[in-house]
Design goal:
alpha+beta; 5-stranded mixed beta sheet; 4-stranded mixed beta sheet
Length: 304
Amino acid sequence: MIGEVCYWIFNMSIIASFMGLIVLLIRKIRFIPHRVSVFLWIVPFVRMLIPLGLNSPYSLMSLISRITTRTVTVYRLTEDLSLSTSNTIMAAESYDPITYKVNILENIFNVAGIVWTAGAVTVFLVLVILYCASLLEIRDAVPFKEDIYLSGKVVSPAVYGIFRPRIILPSSYAEKDLKYIIRHERTHIHRKDNLWRLLGFFAASVHWFNPLSWLFLKEFLSDLELACDEKAVSSYGRNEQKEYALTILEYSGKRNMFASSFGGAKVRSRIENILSYKKMTAVSASVFTVMVLIIIYTLLTNAG
């Protein structure tokens, strides 16, 4: 059983890697705002966590299947609609249950399954320990106002927690910066960015053996910050945007990977992104939305 799980995890990881590399290329297109392109990360993370998908003749997998993969139908919903999984390994004769082409492959995947399980549990426990340590770091935070707390143990403002998020400010915060800090952190809360961070870490821990999964996580977290900045400054004038950017420079110290931090991500990239920010018109927003939905559809569906 563990060997079959490992077979499909490896298979999902290969497909997710390919889709993630495509997302990395697309996000390099400068005219696409980060608050739009960040949604493209849905594709590799869904591919990492959900093995099944709908078939479509317009799927990118239809093109790839001519070279290296095949589609395995798992459940037929209707005559024309079925759930399937894309199989890039193709090391089996049949798939329910898996019957391997060569007997030794069964032993290889059984051993690999044990290694994968041990690795996934270890990575998960390490992340839990680090998360608990980050919460202990702010347990002495004192209330400031509403959901905002002050702590002498943090050097950069951040949002901690998912279901009852709290904004933690360093005790030495400057009054002149408060407006921009709170705007940024409340934008994180509104966008539920800590929940998306958690899902990203979970996906990477499942695919701990794949270095690309950690690269995707790193770039995804960076894009969350860039998208948050764009949303936060969307109603600011040019002078306020510059002040916001200067405030980021001031708090670009130590970061916590489990919290949405005001000084997080690559500071230079964030400042350049803020200073080059342009508001989207209703038409451009619609065009970008449709474009991203089409990309997600073609990358998430399987060969029809």
